[in-house]
Amino acid sequence: MRQHRFDKDIPFTEGEYLRRLALTRAAMDRAGIEVLLVTDPSNIAWLTGYDGWSFYVHQAALVFHDRDPVWWGRNQDTNGALRTVWMNDDRVIGYEDSYVQNPDKHPMEDLVLRLVGMGFPAPRLGVEMENYYFSARAYLALGEAAPEATLIDATGLVNWERGIKSDEEVVFMRRAARISEKIVDGLLERVEPGVPKNEIVAQIQHDAYTGADGHWGDYAAIVPLLPSGSDAAAPHLTWDGRPFRKGEATFFEISGCYRRYHAPLCRTIFLGEPPEIFRAAEAALIEGLEAGLEAARAGNRACDIAHALAAPLERAGIERGARCGYPIGLSYPPDWGERTVSLRTEDETVLQPGMTFHFMPGLWMSDWGLEITESILITEDGPAECFCDRPRKMFVKP
Amino acid sequence: MRQHRFDKDIPFTEGEYLRRLALTRAAMDRAGIEVLLVTDPSNIAWLTGYDGWSFYVHQAALVFHDRDPVWWGRNQDTNGALRTVWMNDDRVIGYEDSYVQNPDKHPMEDLVLRLVGMGFPAPRLGVEMENYYFSARAYLALGEAAPEATLIDATGLVNWERGIKSDEEVVFMRRAARISEKIVDGLLERVEPGVPKNEIVAQIQHDAYTGADGHWGDYAAIVPLLPSGSDAAAPHLTWDGRPFRKGEATFFEISGCYRRYHAPLCRTIFLGEPPEIFRAAEAALIEGLEAGLEAARAGNRACDIAHALAAPLERAGIERGARCGYPIGLSYPPDWGERTVSLRTEDETVLQPGMTFHFMPGLWMSDWGLEITESILITEDGPAECFCDRPRKMFVKP
C-alpha cells in the first residue's frame, strides 16, 4: 500500500483504517466475495473516511482484496471525497450528472463499466441487499448491466465488523456522551409548563452543535424525539409548536454526536406530581436497567440483557414486546443503530469487550410513555460501563 | 367514505387529502395498479398525514381504489399513526417487533398476509422500485411471499402527483420561506472571521426551529451545508469546528421547514475582498438566474430554464455540467427534492402553474464554489415567483 493522504483532516489513524480493511477483507473471504459494493453511508465512512450529505444519490465504496478501496459517486461529490477519504486521489471516481434521478439510465450502469475497466467483468460481487441506499431498482440495474457477475448478499457484512469499537472510536463516543449530558442538563433547566416544544428543540440542537469539552458537535442520525402526555405512547413523534403542560410526562430521546459517533441518552421529565402508575413503572424500569447492566458482561449473550430487564418489568405487570437495544457508533440518517445485534430474547450473540449498545427499554404504553436509557460499553470484566453519567431516573419538576 | 378523524391535528383539510387520493388513484389506473404500496415517507405523509421518524424500519401506506388507505408499520409506531393519519383507527395496522432488522424474517411477509386478509391474494401491486425505503431485499422478500402478485414499478408515481401544489401547500411553503429568510439574515449578522462553523450551525438550527411569523419550525430534510474556501468546491460537505477565515467564500445551503414543507435558499458570504474571478462568476450567475426566472413560465419546459441559465454562464467561461434544480415541497431525509423533474437540458417537462422548484445553479469549481439560489413558484402567467425575498447576490463582509 502506498503512502496515503493523512495530511488531510481524516478522523482516524492509518492503522485504524487498515484494521477495518483487514477485518472487512477477512469477512469477504469467508463469504466468497471478490469485490464488495458498500452502499451504506455509515459503512462507507467507516472504511474510507468519506463524510458528506450526498447519500441521497447513488454512491459506494468498492473494497478489493488486492488494492486500495475506491470511492465512487456523483461527479460533483468527488470533490468532497478527495477532501475526506484516506485513499489516494486516483481511487476517487465519479459518474456523470445525467445519471442522477433519471429513469432512462442508472448509475449502476456506470459502476459496471468501471468494474470491467478494473478487470472485473464477472466478479463475485457482494451487495448490501437490506439497506436504505441500495434500492430494488439499483439491484436490478446492476444485475442487468453485469449479467456475468454473481451477486452475493452482503447485508450487514461491514456492520458486523463495526461491532467491536477500537480505542480511537471509544474516544469519539465519549466526546459524544459529554454532548448528550449537556443536552439533558439543558432540558432539566429549561423544560417548564408553557414553553413551546420547538423552542426546546432549538436549544437542544444549539447545545448539540456547540459541543462540549472543547469538541464541536456533529448532527445526530435522528432528530430529537419528545412526545408528551398520551403522545408519548408513540416512540417516534418529533415536535410541533405546542407548549409543555403540567401533569404530563415527556420523554426526550436525544444523542450527542462527535464526528458521526453517537451516544444516545434518553430521559423523561414529569411536570407536576406523577401518578402512581409512573412511579411504579419508573421503579421497575430502573430495576430492570440495573439488572441489564449487570448482565451486560463479556461472555454473556444479548438475550441475557433482555431477560434481565424483563423480569422486574413483568413483576410490575409491564410487557414491552419490543427489543430493548441495539449497537451504536458511527452513523448517518435515518438510523443511529448498527442493525446487527438486537437486544431481545431471541438473540444469542455473545457480548465481547468493546461492543457498544444503546440499552433502550422504552416503555410505550397505550396512553403514556417513559424512557430512561443508557449508552453502554462492554468491558473486559465486570458489568457494562455507561458512557453518560446522569441520574438514572424520571425527573420530576413539581 | 366515512367521517374521518379531523378532530386530530392533521395538517390539511379532508378535501385536500381526497384530492391527493383521487390523483393517485387515477395514476394507478393508468398504470394498471390495483393496490399501491407506498414506501417513500414523503409520499406516505402526503397521502395519509403520517408524521414520525420511523422510516428507518419498513412501513408503508397501501392505496386502494375502493376503500380508504391503510397505514402499515411496526407495532410500536401504530400509536404515532393513530395520532397523525386522517383515516379511521381500523385502517392502522402493525407488525410484530421480531420482524425488525431480523435476517430470518422480513416485514414484507407480514404485509403479504395482510393483503391476503383484505382479499388481495394476487394483486397487481405497485412498488416504488427506486426509493431509499424499499430495499432490494424488501423487493425480493415481497416477491417470495406473494408469488401470485404482479409487481409493477411505481417509482415516482405519487411523486409526480405531488408536483403541482395546492393553495394549502403553498401557504406552508411560504411559512418555510419566512424561516429561510430569517436564517440567512442571521448568517449575515453572525458570520465573521474566527467564528467556528459549528457555532454558526447551532444558530442556524436555533433560528430554524424557533420559526418565524408565529409559526414553529420543523427539521429540514437536509442539514445545513456550509463549506468554505477550496472546500466549497464540494457541494455536500457539512461542518466541523474550524473557524471562518478572511479571504474565503462560504456558501450556505439551508432551508426553513414548516410541517415538512421546504423553501431552500442558498447564499454565499465572502469575508474580505473577493478576487475578480468571484465577481465575474457572481455577475454571470445572477444574469443566469434572472434569465432562468424569466423562462420559468407556465407552458415553457424544464429545459428552457436550464438553457436560459447556461447562456450567460457559458459566456463567462463557466460550464456547470450538473442539473440546476429540482421540485420541492413536502420531504423527509435524506433529500428535500421530489425526484421527478430535473432542471436540465434534456428534460422537456412542461411547466404548470403551482409547480415549485429549487432553482439551484450551484457553481462547484475545482477549488472554489458559489451558490445563489431561489425557491420558485410557477404562476398562471408571467415569470416565476420567488418564495424568498433576499438580495440575489454574493454578500461581502470586508
Automatic annotation (TrEMBL), chains A, B:
The keyword Hydrolase applies. The keyword Kinase does not apply. Residues 20-163 form the Creatinase N-terminal domain. Keywords: Hydrolase. GO terms for molecular function: hydrolase activity. InterPro entries: Creatin/AminoP/Spt16_N, Creatinase/aminopeptidase-like, Creatinase_N, Pept_M24, Peptidase_M24B. Pfam families: Creatinase_N (PF01321), Peptidase_M24 (PF00557). Residues 173-380 form the Peptidase M24 domain. This is Ectoine hydrolase DoeA. It comes from Pseudoponticoccus marisrubri. The lineage of its organism: Bacteria, Pseudomonadati, Pseudomonadota, Alphaproteobacteria, Rhodobacterales.
